């Protein structure tokens, strides 16, 4: 059964290829994903797919994402 995931990623996540890297990671995991820079300097990600794959995307974000990103906090809602 497919699930949806909403992520809000805080830290230095804009201007460091976080959105593009997150979309590529999601694609690698077989997920449908969109990622958007927000005015508050966060990145919002919405993804859909298998729960175990969505959890891997959450862990990838929490681990810091791409090389130059500095993730301070990740809020996630899986539904």
From TrEMBL:
EC assignment: 3.6.1.7
Superkingdom is: Bacteria
Keywords in alphabetical order, please. Answer: Hydrolase
In terms of InterPro entries, this protein maps to: Acylphosphatase, Acylphosphatase-like_dom, Acylphosphatase-like_dom_sf, Acylphosphatase_CS
Q: Describe the reaction catalysed, as an equation.
A: an acyl phosphate + H2O = a carboxylate + phosphate + H(+)
Q: What is this protein called?
A: acylphosphatase
Q: What is the lineage of its organism?
A: Bacteria, Candidatus Tagaibacteriota
Give the signal peptide, or none. Answer: none
Q: Which family does it belong to?
A: Belongs to the acylphosphatase family.
Output one GO MF annotation: acylphosphatase activity
Record: active site: 19, 37
| PANTHER family attached to this UniProt entry | ACYLPHOSPHATASE (PTHR47268)
Gene3D superfamilies (UniProt xref): 3.30.70.100
The family database entries (Pfam families) matched by this protein are listed as: Acylphosphatase
Residues covered by the Acylphosphatase-like domain: 4-79
